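Researcher: Sequence recovery benchmark, item below. Answer with residues only.
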């Protein structure tokens, strides 16, 4: 009688994936994101030098900023779909590689035309980094430990735009403006090496990738959705970035771009809500916690990027600070965030403070810090501005971590990738609207205050004439002619009027941002209660 022999298991060459510390993955993907966010602001202070180096006007070289932001805005919302098409790791590495190569092109560009082409490609590469990193962090860390990963992400997205002007000013003053772009190259190569070695797509993501192909294996391309989003996002970004420069709706170009943006984005939302596999899944906004979280992402971008743009501008124009000194005022805020964001993560992870409570308190602190700014005057010194920024940093240190936890509290794992694109979409647009608000409102409010204050200081005002005469007498005693002394004294008081009204305009901007932030705070109370680290209930 023959003895049955059990079949030997088939041998395979596949090796189990090595266990990697999730913090290695977190640090790896944060490196490139930090680099990209740094690039959104590092070139700002170098524009006059770039204009001189390329032999073009300042207005022409401002397109170096605009083209990057437009390309970034177009790609960012589509990053979830692109990562499903190419694989998250492959797409992320392609973005890093493109960003690195185009940084070299920017650094060696001999003409403005080549520079602008390189900046468009750089914006395309940079647009996919932040949302893909956020998705990688969510899938790498289990729900109970995500708060700590979000703390690291907070440090990157808040400190990078803040130190950009400081670093850009220092590089330009001590070396050459081309190094503003060339410093990205070694960082890019380091990021590529570690990403290739340590970052892997999760097994569950393979199933998600299958959804972009039909039964025949062909790629499902939401061509109309991609076209509408690209056209609408690009047009809106140009409107926001160039609106004040081109007199807003006084410019036919801005008017047409606004119509195109509204029409394309409205059509995109309608189309994406009805197509089977949308490039942006707006249906996720039906989930209450996720929808409310995106309101706060917008508020976060609006306040952070708006004030990060306004504070250096204010200090340079009214207090005579150098670019690097104005940038240093932002330093204490970045330091407080770096120090306390991990504390906020521990408060959430250990269940000491619920994310909803922590976020509500953080939003209130940010709002109060903005109101505090609005009471400054022309005698306010560096210490007061630095402390106010530290107070703002205190709010943001406890803002993003609980917000991120709330964002994913009702989402299933297969929704994380699409969600990360939407959250970055709202944060990015919050920043764009915040910067546009500052540039427009500060100028409009200055005109208002100048007209109002000037109406009380007519040329026949006895007090004004007395002050001008006293100053003119002093100047005459120190070598000025009688005519020149009166002209110089009059100009001096006009400069004082201009400085006072400009300060009032900036203070109005701080006040409005503070009020908007405080008004948004009660929305936290509308979020659904949830257990930190708990499973997402079926049907949300």
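Model:
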């Amino acid at each position: 009688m023959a003895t049955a022999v059990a079949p030997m298991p088939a041998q395979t060459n596949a090796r189990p994936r090595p266990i990697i510390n999730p913090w290695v993955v977190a640090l790896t993907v944060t490196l490139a994101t930090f680099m990209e966010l740094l690039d959104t602001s590092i070139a700002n202070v170098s524009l006059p030098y770039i204009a001189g180096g390329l032999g073009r006007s300042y207005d022409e070289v401002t397109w170096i900023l605009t083209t990057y932001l437009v390309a970034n805005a177009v790609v960012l919302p589509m990053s979830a779909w692109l990562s499903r098409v190419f694989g998250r790791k492959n797409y992320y590495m392609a973005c890093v590689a493109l960003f690195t190569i185009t940084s070299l092109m920017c650094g060696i560009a001999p003409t403005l035309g080549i520079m602008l082409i390189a900046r468009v490609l750089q914006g395309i590469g940079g647009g996919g980094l932040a949302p893909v990193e956020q998705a990688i962090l969510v899938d790498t860390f289990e729900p109970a430990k995500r708060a700590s990963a979000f703390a690291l992400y907070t440090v990157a997205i808040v400190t990078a735009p803040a130190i950009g002007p400081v670093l850009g000013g220092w590089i330009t003053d001590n070396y050459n403006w081309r190094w503003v772009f060339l410093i990205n190259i070694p960082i890019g190569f380091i990021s590529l090496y570690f990403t290739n070695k340590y970052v892997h797509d999760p097994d569950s993501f393979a199933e998600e990738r299958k959804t972009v192909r039909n039964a025949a294996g062909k790629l499902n391309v939401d061509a109309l959705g991609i076209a509408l989003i690209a056209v609408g996002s690009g047009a809106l970004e140009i409107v926001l970035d160039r609106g004040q420069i081109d007199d807003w709706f006084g410019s036919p170009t801005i008017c047409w771009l606004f119509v195109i943006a509204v029409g394309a984005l409205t059509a995109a939302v309608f189309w994406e809500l009805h197509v089977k596999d949308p490039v942006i899944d707006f249906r996720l906004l039906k989930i209450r916690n996720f929808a409310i979280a995106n309101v706060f992402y917008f508020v976060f971008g609006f306040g952070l990027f708006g004030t990060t743009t306004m504070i250096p501008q204010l200090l340079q124009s009214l207090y005579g600070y150098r670019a690097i000194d104005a940038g240093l005022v932002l330093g204490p805020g970045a330091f407080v965030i770096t120090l306390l964001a991990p504390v906020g993560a521990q408060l959430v992870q250990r269940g000491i403070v619920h994310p909803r409570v922590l976020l509500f308190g953080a939003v209130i602190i940010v709002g109060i810090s903005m109101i505090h700014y609005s009471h400054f005057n022309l005698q306010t010194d560096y210490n007061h501005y630095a402390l106010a920024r530290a107070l703002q940093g205190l709010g943001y240190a406890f803002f993003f971590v609980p917000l991120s936890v709330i964002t994913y509290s009702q989402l299933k794992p297969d929704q994380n990738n699409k969600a990360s694109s939407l959250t970055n979409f709202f944060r990015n647009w919050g920043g764009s609207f915040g910067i546009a608000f500052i540039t427009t409102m500060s100028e409009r409010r200055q005109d208002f205050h100048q007209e109002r204050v000037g109406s009380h200081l007519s040329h026949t005002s006895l007090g004004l004439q007395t002050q001008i005469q006293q100053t003119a007498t002093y100047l005459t005693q120190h070598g000025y002619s009688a005519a020149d002394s009166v002209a110089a004294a009059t100009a001096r008081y006009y400069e004082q009027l201009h400085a006072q009204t400009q300060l009032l305009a900036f203070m109005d901007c701080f006040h409005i941002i503070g009020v908007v932030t405080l008004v948004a705070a009660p929305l936290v109370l509308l979020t659904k209660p949830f257990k930190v680290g708990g499973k997402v209930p079926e049907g949300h």
